[in-house]
Write a structure and sequence with these properties.
The chain has ten helices and 13 strands. It is of the alpha+beta class. It folds into two domains: 136 residues, PAS domain (Beta-Lactamase, 2-Layer Sandwich), CATH 3.30.450.20; 163 residues, 2-Layer Sandwich (Alpha-Beta Plaits), CATH 3.30.70.
Length: 329
């Protein structure tokens, strides 16, 4: 049996040999020289970006293959010693092994040529000469779009109500806390609506749980249709919904509440369980001015109390309570 000896790397051309290896990799990779020009763009990179090597070699336009608007690639940042900007440009980044030479980062890329937005993970390694100076930078890429989309889907499942598609209680609690802190910083009012379906037990008794679920879905759509971009509507629990209205006065909250009440009434969902009436909602509204020594739980309690009054007063109506909490002077 003969021993198989590895072919020697030509001593006079180690860099050319390395480039040939990169060219044959199934992993997308490109190389920038010391002047930031593309000196290698392998076939896998062509396949990923839709940009052929001859279109980009010798240019400083590697970024055009990934973004609609000018911005540096990760390799550019390393080459130009601008790694302090990585956090602002990428969703996530790290230095593998804790070293200073290599850098990894992830972000969404526009991919102008292919027209398909992709989530790419980039790994960058500088090539040094005998004196330690950077003569080139290698960037390899991994398409992690499927993994990212799966992560987003899981996150949405964790924050959305399975029946209505609205935000769930956990998302409501987190958002209310964040909006309370924002209102505190900016000195703006924060309003909250608590919306409850009237006589829902009788509706469930008359139509069954399947009918009740369909009713809640219709009402959820009606409530959500009245929201602004920054508002949040959540299923608070059972047949109760909560609406967070950032930077909204009590007067504005009352207008939104009345629009919601009317829209639900216009659905004309018959409730045979209560004398052939239509399904309606009662709404409690509260507005607060956040202060350092307060928390949003008081706003929830105030809106709940207003909702109870609306129920007590005959249902299918709104009840308002202004709760201004100001810092002690």
């Amino acid at each position: 049996m003969h021993n198989v000896q590895p072919l020697p790397v030509p001593a006079q051309a180690p860099r050319r040999y390395a480039f040939d290896v990169l060219e044959l990799l199934v992993i997308p990779a490109f190389v920038l020289d010391a002047q930031g020009r593309v000196s290698m763009w392998n076939r896998a990179c062509e396949h990923l970006t839709g940009v052929l090597a001859h279109e980009v070699l010798g240019t400083r336009d590697a970024w055009r293959s990934f973004y609609q608007h000018a911005r540096p690639t990760l390799a550019d940042l390393v080459l130009q010693r601008r790694t302090g900007e990585v956090a602002a440009l990428y969703d996530d980044h790290q230095r593998p092994g804790g070293g200073d030479a290599n850098l990894s980062a992830q972000s969404w890329c526009d991919m102008p040529r292919s027209g398909r937005r992709r989530y790419l993970a980039a790994d960058v390694s500088p090539i040094l000469d005998g004196d330690g100076a950077v003569v080139a930078v290698v960037e390899t890429l991994r398409d992690m779009t499927a993994e990212k989309q799966a992560q987003i889907a899981l996150e949405q499942l964790a924050t959305k109500d399975g029946l209505t598609g609205l935000a769930n209680r956990r998302c409501f609690d987190d958002t209310l806390h964040a909006e309370w802190q924002r209102a505190l910083r900016q000195g703006q009012p924060l309003s909250l609506l608590m919306v409850d379906v009237d006589n829902f037990k009788q509706y469930n008794d008359a139509y069954g749980h399947v009918g009740g679920d369909a009713c809640l879905q219709r009402i959820a759509g009606a409530v959500a249709s009245e929201m602004r971009t920054n508002d949040l509507v959540a299923r608070y629990g059972g047949e109760e919904f909560a609406v967070i209205l950032p930077n909204q006065s009590l007067k504005g909250a009352a207008i939104v509440a009345e629009r919601i009440r009317c829209r639900v009434e216009r659905l004309q969902l018959p409730n045979l369980g209560v004398g052939k009436q239509y399904v309606t909602v009662s709404i409690g509204a509260a507005t607060a001015l956040a202060a350092p020594d307060t928390d949003p739980a008081h706003l929830v309690a105030t809106a709940d109390a207003a909702l109870y009054r609306a129920k007590h007063m005959g249902r299918n109506r709104i009840s308002l309570t202004l709760e201004e909490v100001v810092a002690a002077r």
